[in-house]
Amino acid sequence: MSTTVPRVEAPPQVRRLPRGLAWLVELAGIGVLWWFTLQQVDLSAMGDTGLVSVLPWTGYLALAAMAVSFGLTLAHRASPRWLLMLYPAVLTVLLFVTPPLLYGAVRYSWTWKHAGIIDYIDRTGTVDPTIGVLGIYHNWPGFFAFNAMLTDLAGLDSALSYAAWAEVFFYLLTVAAAMVLLRTITDDARTVAVGGWLFVLANWVGQGYFSPQALNYVWYLLVLAVLIRWFARPVPQADPALAADADATPGQRVALMGLLLLLSACIVTTHQLTPLMLVLMLVALAATRRTVGWALPVFVAVALGAWVLYVAAPFTQSSLVEALGAVGAVRGNLQDTLIGYNQVSSGQELVSLVARVHTVLIGLLGVAGMVVAWLRGRRDYVPMLWAFTPATLVVFSPYGSEILFRAFMFALPGLVYFAATLLWPLGAAVTRWRAAVVVVVSCALMGTFLLAEFGNDRQYHFSPGEVAAADFVYSVAPPGSLLIEGSRNYPAQFDDYERFTYVPIAREDAAVRRAMVTDPEEKLFGWMSDTPYAATYLIITRSQKAETEALGEFPGRGLAGIETDLLASDAFHPLFRNRDATVFVLAETLTDHTTKPGRP
Amino acid sequence: MSRASAVAVATAGLGAAALVAMLVQPGPPVQPLLVFAFALAAPGLAVVGLLEPSSLMWHLVMGVAISIALGVAVAQVLLFMGVWSPELGLLLLVAVTWVAAGIQLLRPRLPALPGLSIPRRSS
After folding, report:
1. Alpha carbon distance A446, A358 (integer Å)
2. pLDDT the model gives residue A328
3. Which residues of B touch A183 (CB under 8 A)?
4. By the 8 A CB rule, do A50 and A457 touch?
5. How high is the pLDDT of residue A2?
6. Do the chains contact at B117 and A183, CB–CB below 8 Å?
7. Cβ contact A290–B76 (<8 Å)
8. Chain B residues touching A125 at Cβ < 8 A
9. With an 8 Å Cβ cutoff, are A173 and B57 in contact?
10. CA A396/CA A399 separation, integer angstroms
11. How far apart are CA B95 and CA B70, in angstroms?
12. Contact (CB<8Å) B69/A262
């Protein structure tokens, strides 16, 4: 007789994706939602709060989902280190692919000017340190020379072919360098990931575009990382608390110093502000005995002096008085930074206010983290120096109005380190409530970041119509022409830039601007007739109008009124016109413009 | 094959591809892709690889940063010496890459550069 034992059915196996793959699928889903959001954006409806004014609700949903996904990954004990580090990078891509995907043409008028310097080097194979327009770039030409080389070798017509995507590249490189720097002072993957994540959301000052500053910031962060990791006091061999094999071999240290010298030399020769910041930071680290020796700060200071006084002498001689006048002008620098609210539009007032609130929030998080760390007995002097030394830039720099924001940018590594230790203390247990706090703080910062970073995009982005108008002008204007511009804010100076004279109306005295709005026909006829120039053009574009309206630079009807009056005038002829731009010439010179060939 | 050796082979190959792109000029998208991939990554990855870094993240980030620094240095030297030539610039960068990759492949294995984090007492 046999008995049959009833079989207990095993619970059905749920086939799950491997954990890492599941997170990747989740991130891909968020990416698709963001891409879908961008398809729904109507750029023509953009108001004076920039991208925020036209971003559909799905965009906010995607960002919130991103924050929640990061929180879940933090809360999962088995989350691999690489996945934690991936989140700040994915957030960076999500945010900064937006301008190139949405706008097409590269944003920021300065990017177009940078392309103009690259075009100059590509055409002539030289720089002209004494040139009157954009001369500063000819005296610190490294970034532009490298891009001229790349453009030529790649067979491209202009650096504008890739400049829009450079923003994604530089922001990604920057956040990666910031996380490398954070890892030199803590091995806690969650603290580093939260630090990198906060760094992305804190870095709103818009210096990651196609510019020498973007590249120099990466180099600056990496110089600090190498210095703190391999040239810090106490030296590992002398400290019994540190592993005996934690340090590099003598040969490796020599090679690392070689890399530091290369990066420092490149910083000195490609930018004006970063080497000053680097010297201040190196001196602070050496003077407080956080790093070994004075060789590097002395080298950078001497190299900086030599470059400024010898190689860049043509520029320095003309600007030294102005620069020296700004040294110590703390009050002036601070006041310049503060926009007069009675002039700006309400939307721009909001953007400006939110940007400052955002800055203060990051600062408060950093300071709170610092205080908590101190109370817990941690004496993190190195990140304190990262956070506080940049404040001295306000005393030394001739940058005027921008300096507070640049100082904030250089202080970010220290601030986000302490903010990260506040949200995720070093070695803290993995708990859901801690991850939830990170999600809540992230969502709040995302809101203010969007306004601070993209709130000015109505004037910072350029439409195809504006680019077409600029292309037209540069294709027909003979060398020696006068280009009168509503303001500097439009695609300009990117092609044969040195062959023209530029006069932006918005830079004129208030009385001139007022007279221009009152009777543009008479005023501009006077400007455009009887000049020694080969030809004269007046360019008014959508982004110029947006900027001057936002900043309140013209009274009354502003640039739009000037354009309307000139269109109705018999004395002016719109040589080129589309929805977003008009190029005027004097009607009496029309025959010249239609018979004279443009530039070859 | 170690990671550093694999990187040496890859960067040397990218250098060769960039040279071919310069000579053949296939146009976009191949030419910009090869030139940018080489110039933005290869020289620095090869040079930094000589340190045998144990941190992949540091190797990648430092490699890209050093690549651009070498490119900037070469471009500035050509500019200020009055011998501007993008082709010569590429040749110099490829030479640096090949020398670094050659050393990496031919020399005996060295101790790895320790990682980014060390246990550190409060300073």
Report:
1. 10
2. 45
3. 55, 57, 116-117
4. yes
5. 44
6. yes
7. no
8. 79, 84-85
9. no
10. 9
11. 12
12. yes
CA distance B85 to chain A (A): 8
Q: Scanning the structure block, which residue is given the tokens 């018999």?
A: A570
Distance from C-alpha of B77 to C-alpha of B92, rounded to nearest angstrom: 11
- Number of alpha helices (DSSP H) and beta strands (DSSP E) in chain A: 27, 5
Average pLDDT over residues B98-117: 87
Q: What does the pLDDT look like over A285-331, one tens digit per residue? A: 999 988 888 999 999 999 999 999 999 998 888 776 565 554 444 44
Q: Are A406 and A205 in contact (CB under 8 A)?
A: yes
Tokens at residue A574, please? 């719109």
* Residues from chain A contacting residue B119 (CB–CB below 8 Å): 187, 241-243, 246
| Residue ranges of B 98-117 with Cβ closer than 8 A to chain A | 110-111, 113-114, 116-117
CA distance A38 to A104: 12
Q: A263 to chain B: which residues are within 8 Å by CB? A: 65-66, 69
- Rounded CA-CA distance B46/B100 in Å is 6
% chain A with pLDDT above 70: 88
Average pLDDT of chain A is 89
CA atoms of A353 and A347, how far apart (whole Å): 10
So what's the pLDDT on residue A16?
59
- Burial group, residue A526, by CB count within 10 angstroms (0-12, 13-18, 19+): exposed
CB A487 within 8 A of CB A549: no
Do residues A544 and A580 make contact, with C-beta atoms less than 8 angstroms apart?
no
Q: What is the pLDDT of residue A249?
A: 86
Q: Which of A309-318, A478-487, B19-28 has the lowest mean pLDDT?
A: A309-318
A539 touches A581 (CB < 8 A) = yes
Parallel/antiparallel/unpaired status of strands A501-504 and A572-578: unpaired
Record: contact B72-A247, CB cut-off 8 A: no
CB contact under 8 A, B35 and A184: no
pLDDT tens column, A110-125: 999 999 999 999 999 9
Which residues in chain A touch residue B27, judged by CB atoms under 8 angstroms apart?
A: 155
| Among the listed residues A223, A101, A109, the one whose alpha carbon sits nearest the alpha carbon of residue A165 | A101
* Cβ-based neighbour number of residue A323 at 10 Å: 15
For residues A536 and B62, what is the distance between their CA atoms, to the nearest angstrom? 49
Q: Is B27 on the interface with A (CB under 8 A)?
A: yes
- Note which residues in 47-76 of chain B have CB less than 8 A from chain A: 47-48, 50-51, 55, 57-58, 60-62, 64-66, 68-76
Nearest chain B residue to A373 by CA distance is B122
Contact A49, A352 (CB under 8 A): no
Instruction: Give the pLDDT confidence of A521-530 residue by residue, as tens digits.
Output: 999 999 998 7
Which tops the pLDDT comparison, A339 or A278?
A: A278
Chain A positions in Cβ-Cβ contact with residue B114 (cut-off 8 Å): 245-248
- pLDDT value for A248: 83
Chain segment A408-446, per-residue pLDDT in tens: 999 999 999 999 999 999 988 999 999 999 999 999 999
B123 and A CB contact within 8 Å: yes
ipTM of the complex: 0.95
The chain B residue lying nearest A159, using CA atoms, is: B32
pTM, entire model:
0.92
Quick one: which of A339, A343, A340 has its CA closest to A558? A343
CA distances from A315 to A237, A271, A304, A319, B75 (A): 47, 13, 14, 6, 21
For residue B116, name the pLDDT band (cuts at 50, 70, 90). Answer: confident
Q: What is the DSSP string of B11-76?
A: HHHHHHHHHHHHHH---TTHHHHHHHHHHHHHHHHHHHHTT-BS-HHHHHHHHHHHHHHHHHHHHH
Q: Who has greater pLDDT, A507 or A318?
A: A507
Contact assessment for residue A177 and residue A199, using Cβ atoms and an 8 Å cutoff? no
